Fold each of these.
Amino acid sequence: MITDLRVLQDEFLPKEIRHRDREIDSIATALQPILHGEPADDVFLHGPTGVGKTCIARYSMEQLKMEAAVDTQYVNCWNDYTRYRVLYKLLEGVGRTVDIHRSSTPRDVLLDRIQDAEGPYVAVLDEVDQLEDPSVLYDLYTIPHVTVLMIANDHQGFLNSVDDRLESRLTVCRDIKFEPYTVDALVAILEDRVRKGLYPDAVSDRQLERIADAAAGDARVAIGALRVAARTAEDRGLDEITPEVVEDAIPDARKQIRSKTLDSLTEHQMVLYDIVEEHGEADPGVLYEEYESRVDSPKTRRTLRNYLAKMVQYDLLEAEGEGRGRSYRLKEAGD
DNA sequence: ATTCCACCGGAATAGCGGGATA
DNA sequence: TATCCCGCTATTCCGGTGGAAT
């Protein structure tokens, strides 16, 4: 069934990108000055999940590096959300972290190091709206040879959340909007992966269309469903992905994506999540009492509020109402 | 209308872990 | 070894908000 599992993984970066020519051109145009040794415009990619933002950003970096001597670094601000961690990651990109330690290195030596590095540098900041303190963007603006490529779901929402000084800088960067994939586009993407990763005839066009349709424009879900379906078919000793396998694979793929997020929660946060799951819907008072009774040394109410806010940010939970009447419930997959 | 109360979330602070320094 | 510094999490403090009770 499967000949190459890698091409079905999220991280896989295809050599050719389908149905995103306009976006790729826009990025290339924005970064063009780098080829002539001049500072380039910053770029902002935005659009819903699974529309190829990250993929196209990584692809563009590969292309750029083939044409010019330029350093690039990818930072996912979901994982590296503090100023320090972002700067540290960016230093890794130019190999200047050797004697950096989080203690005893004077406060802004990281920024100085990036500044001192010669040559153009493109910093890709994915999930940039997850930064706890976006002022690191301002730090980077002060360095002429650094170009920032930001990625987020909601461009306007992000602009509104930063202070005026930063906002005025951000509004001048080139913004590129990504629309959800059409069913045809998703089928084309899936066909590519099938050709490289599965035996011929392992799956019919009809089943690919079914997957593409259920994915609702989200390539990540579509590829995940294909992966799950291929594995299931293999486990069951089938030589073809059947309609039944596809039907099961779609919800499983969404679950897999969710459980990836759940893995990043702490033990206490997980307890809290379980409580919300059991109650279906719960107000904060009940939530805290329940939590208090289940855990050895409970955190304070304030900390729990932070946990809840975090899980809402992560799209795990949904909050309803403000102030006194607020309640929390699980956020179901699929916006 | 007014008061009350549960809850929200910003800001400042404390405490911890861990590496550096003297 | 004792001490310092830093990042990071949790805690403390508190003003603000909106629904419920009076």
Amino acid sequence: MSLVRRTIERYVKLTDAEWAVVAPHWQPRDFPKGAFITRTGEVEPWFSIVEQGVQRLFVEHDGSEVCVGFAYDGSWSGVYDSFVTRTPSRFAVQAVTDSRLWSIRREALYGLYDTVPAMDRWGRLILEELLIGRATREIEQLTLDAEARYRNLIRRSPHLLQLVAQKDIASYLRMTPETFSRLRARVR
Amino acid sequence: MSLVRRTIERYVKLTDAEWAVVAPHWQPRDFPKGAFITRTGEVEPWFSIVEQGVQRLFVEHDGSEVCVGFAYDGSWSGVYDSFVTRTPSRFAVQAVTDSRLWSIRREALYGLYDTVPAMDRWGRLILEELLIGRATREIEQLTLDAEARYRNLIRRSPHLLQLVAQKDIASYLRMTPETFSRLRARVR
DNA sequence: GCCGGCGCTTGATGTGGATCAAGAACCTTC
DNA sequence: GAAGGTTCTTGATCCACATCAAGCGCCGGC
């Protein structure tokens, strides 16, 4: 359980008293490989920290799927925009491997924002990090070609190639599996 | 000046005492049409609210520019990731029309986060909104073709077409000016 | 008011990556 | 361990969009 506290304390310090308020709201949730954690069209009630496993976040679009992100140990997982706006999610989240998440419900988190100021700040810092990640990804999409994006990925997250299907990586890099396969052969 | 207070109070209420603390840190900055507000490589020290004018946010990439966003009346303006991380900006911001911004420096804003809890929350709410906007834009890029993205833009922001060059809109929609021109002729 | 330049349009041509297709190497399941 | 499905690879074809090119119109500066 202290994974949650450790993760939060990467951003803000919590007193034991504050932790005592925060802790009860988090609960573990387990998903077998392949299970859907959030389906398109459902409102996302959870915000989660990944204890183990890999999940993929993707958009469905007339029959096909486009991967927009992955989550794994120590990162957060969920569909933040649906969580915040309480509108049906346009993204789906699926367990790529057996996964354990620690999750908090929306009402509980927003309650904590009101009662524990450190958590309000934590929310801000998490969002800053997410936004920076988005900006970085946008820059990559704009300034790097397919091969450079691939090289970047294997440099930053070499383990991903072992963990998730190449077709998911391909769609994450915005290309077809065929193009990805040829790229790998070429780059060797 | 009350534009700033009104804008902040769209998210959180401020007592007069809090406003008295917050207000002195905001200052107006004027830019003539064409002026750079932030250059690539500079660290962004400001977070701004637009009082008037239109600005474009773009990435430079071997000689050409790709527009990634616009800001106008009532929206915020700046390069948030450089602002937060104090690293050189990979984006540039330029005044498309004569512009007046109300701006606060990073140190001042982070000071307010510590002294005025409502501002900490404001920071979180602003970021939530920004992140939702990013998610929406990402979905659009993935699920809509060029023509649908164009229709979406003229539906949501018809005034933009009058205000900014078509080549900027074209790059915002991820196409060349030629393709955009042909699209407009075709769509009528 | 004239000149120069940039932005927009329109046409001709080229190409990177998508699509279609088929076979091989896998996991998974019974 | 055989059967069936999925994923990956490799080849052939195709096409949307980029690129190249030329002409026009508008605006700003002197």
